[in-house]
Amino acid sequence: MTVKTLEDLFVESLKDIYYAEKHILKALPGMVKKAGSKKLRDALETHRQETEGQIDRLEQVFKLFDISPRGKKCEAIEGILAEAKEHMEDIEDPEVLDAGMIGSAQAVEHYEITRYGTLIAWAKRLGRDEAMQLLDANLKQEKHADRLLSDIAESSVNEKAAA
Ligand SMILES: [Fe+2]
Ligand SMILES: [Fe+2]
After folding, report:
1. Which DSSP symbol is given to 65?
2. How many A from CA of 78 to the centre of ligand 2?
3. How far is the CA of 21 from the centre of ligand 2 (A)?
4. Residue 86 and residue 151: Cα distance in Å, rounded?
5. In angstroms, what is the span from residue 156 Cα to ligand 1's centroid?
6. What are phi and psi of 126, to 5 degrees?
7. Ligand 2 centre and the CA of 147: distance in Å?
8. 50 C-alpha vs ligand 1 centroid, how far in Å?
9. Cα(111)–Cα(141) distance, rounded to whole angstroms?
């Protein structure tokens, strides 16, 4: 598709985050399994469930724009997830691994936060309030997940990893 208008750009970006969310959903169970800290495991599992809901919301946004949901390959999320996988394969110390996985998970959250921030600004400019609200619900969950991961790192995981 050729991008000519802001709406075209919005749709292209929507496809990017849709692809990203689907890949994140596939990657999360492996991270849940590998997490040593119960708090981290629970946070990742909760976010896995939230991610299912986020994908549903994105499908609603596609519907609002009268297009069928389709992803567009997103190299950025693939790179971040590849790095997470590398940590899971290479780090033997389970406590250091937890710290590494939190780092990767937060890189994912920050990627999502930047994408949703942009999409919301564009939806607002396009006067698409309903789309804006759906995207904002996703953004709130990403921000919450990011804060929770910081709390887990700072309250226990980093200290154990450094011991
Ligand atoms: Fe997400
Ligand atoms: Fe997320």
Report:
1. T
2. 14
3. 8
4. 24
5. 24
6. -80, -5
7. 11
8. 7
9. 13
Q: How many Å apart are CA 93 and CA 14, to the nearest integer?
A: 38
* Both structure tokens of 36: 């040593």
44 closest CA partner among 25, 58, 57: 25
Report whether pLDDT(66) > 90: yes
Specify the length of the chain in residues: 163
Determine if the pTM surpasses 0.90: yes
How far, in Å, CA of 57 to CA of 78, rounded? Answer: 22
- Per-residue pLDDT, 30: 95
Ligand approaching nearest to the C-alpha of 51:
1
Confidence of residue 2 (pLDDT cuts 50, 70, 90): confident
Q: How far apart are CA 85 and CA 90, in angstroms?
A: 9
